[in-house]
Amino acid sequence: xxxxxxxxxxxxxxxxxxxxxxxxxxxxxxxxxxxxxxxxxxxxxxxxxxxxxxxxxxxxxxxxxxxxxxxxxxxxxxxxxxxxxxxxxxxxxxxxxxxxxxxxxxxxxxxxxxxxxxxxxxxxxxxxxxxxxxxxxxxxxxxxxxxxxxxxxxxxxxxxxxxxxxxxxxxxxxxxxxxxxxxxxxxxxxxxxxxxxxxxxxxxxxxxxxxxxxxxxxxxxxxxxxxxxxxxxxxxxxxxxxxxxxxxxxxxxxxxxxxxxxxxxxxxxxxxxxxxxxxxxxxxxxxxxxxxxxxxxxxxxxxxxxxxxxxxxxxxxxxxxxxxxxxxxxxxxxxxxxxxxxxxxxxxxxxxxxxxxxxxxxxxxxxxxxxxxxxxxx
Length: 378
Fold this sequence. Notes:
By secondary structure, the chain is an alpha/beta fold. The protein has helices spanning 18-21, 38-43, 58-67, 94-102, 107-116, 126-139, 174-191, 203-217, 219-222, 235-244, 254-257, 262-269, 287-302, 323-336, 356-365, 374-377; strands at 25-29, 47-51, 72-76, 86-87, 124-125, 144-151, 155-157, 167-171, 195-200, 226-229, 248-252, 275-277. It comes from Gloeophyllum trabeum (strain ATCC 11539 / FP-39264 / Madison 617).
């Protein structure tokens, strides 16, 4: 989740034709953070995964997906930045809840919290969040869990309703974030839904979480896919995650990842069949150009050609694929899930390339949504 980068739409390269863009998916964006004009959605040439982040935007994402089902994959969940609004103890008062999170021996901090209380919302019980999340995911059979995750660096605003935001000295305890995240992941496993996962300065905690989820849910964990969105881990850590977790993918964005040269090393280190592209943009008008910018970046550092037209047939060979075709196949595998357990084979099907079509058939068998590009091709 990010603000727009300093680049403007006019500074980005011209997009390819609609026949190519029909095969592009922005796997992580926040279009409901700003007002959306119908003409913007009508002109949107790609598919997008629209993230929810807090209580107030779950319905907005649902409404957008209902209005544009062929273009929007809805994602429901609570972002770590807003997890302090969620109470693990439904009997606690508002003041008791926030004091339990931000209690500090400093008199100044205590005074700051007291000044914040009138402006921050009453907490919602975690049980209520889980109930609403389950209902939303069931209402949209192709929906994902997102954006959820862990963030050690984000500070809580003094007043969430003012702009620009003035930050308080408080950060949300990682144990509290983990409790909220784990509850949401359990719903995802229960309903076999894929996940868009946020990780900022919590890389080891995230790696430990992935390990604990695989140990707890075993085969059920490999049924779903997890995308580490705008991932900033080191190439070495990514290779470890990639090796141990065949259901984890890596998506990158220009807005976030291009701030550091680490993204180049990540692209080079990542297996060809684990990469995805995203915009992480909050304005739907920018989703296509920013996603395309990252696609070009991936092509550059992977040495893949960039398609100028869509001329594939059923007999096309993988070594002939360009970047868009490769990322499209990765997205299909991400959606399909049903990854082979690394415990059953030293060389899992996913690591060695595998049979993509068999995984897609498995996804269809359990009524998961597989995208139909026919409308965008027209």
